[in-house]
Amino acid sequence: MTSPTDPGPTIVVDHPMIQHKLTLMRRTKTAANEFRLLLREISMLLAYEVTRDMPMEMVEIETPLAKMMAPVVAGKKLCLVSVLRAGGGILEGMLDILPAARVGHIGLYRDPVSLAAVEYYLKLPRDISERTAIVLDPMLATGNSAAAAVAEVKAAGCQSIKFVCLIAAPEGLKTFHEAHPDVPVYAAAVDSHLNEHGYIVPGIGDAGDRIFGTK
């Protein structure tokens, strides 16, 4: 893993299998069904890294041969917060690894003129303030949607938050970390820049359209 130079904590997970699968996702000719599968697989691999520092405690169990003290995750479990609609592509893979996690959803769309995030849906677990929230969105482009989503999670009382994306842009990281310098970003890659329409270059195109086969 590496951390690029930016205003806040960014962890680029550069595992060879993640990078290989990301390359396959980037290709224009990759069909929607293959794209979804690759995103799910990368999300599973990202889940290992984003949960690396989860607190543990020792409990007594009994194996077929003896009693022993063994480690388990301590306290309240995680809450995965999917930013609609594309966040669902990461959510599925994360739940494969973290099936006990609670799930929240935040609906946001990007205004095509101002590029500002507009909220249209919000549903979070009541006890999210007692959990670590992992906010999920494949693309951290302008950073506006990501910053708005994390602001909603903070407003619900959550104090332990991480943000996971597939690809980030330097402009988006700057915007996000200026708004939330305390929230680490986990990404598979940080690409070159945004184009005039606010899309990440070279990127993967519109993540939602490629996941669901829409245009």
Rough outline: globular
Output mean pLDDT.
91
Distance between the termini: 34 Å
How does the major sheet shape up? 8 strands, mixed
From the helix content, strand content and strand pairing, which structural class follows?
alpha/beta
SSE pattern, N- to C-terminal: EHHEEEHEEEEHEHEEEH
Q: What percent of residues are in strands?
A: 25-35%
The strand count comes to: 12
Oligomer: single chain
Number of helices: 6
Task: Please give a handful of descriptors for the protein shown.
alpha/beta, globular, eight-stranded mixed beta sheet, 215 residues, two-stranded antiparallel ribbon, single chain, 6 helices
What does this structure look like?
Helix 1 packs antiparallel against helix 2 and helix 2 (32-50) crosses helix 3. By secondary structure, this protein is an alpha/beta fold. The strands form three sheets. Strands 1, 4, 5, 6, 7, 8, 9 and 10 form an eight-stranded mixed sheet that branches. The model has no long low-confidence stretch (mean pLDDT 91). It is built from six helices and twelve strands. The protein has helices at 16-26, 32-50, 87-97, 144-155, 170-179, 207-212, and strands at residues 10-12, 56-62, 67-73, 78-84, 102-110, 117-123, 132-136, 139-140, 160-168, 185-190, 193-194, 200-201.
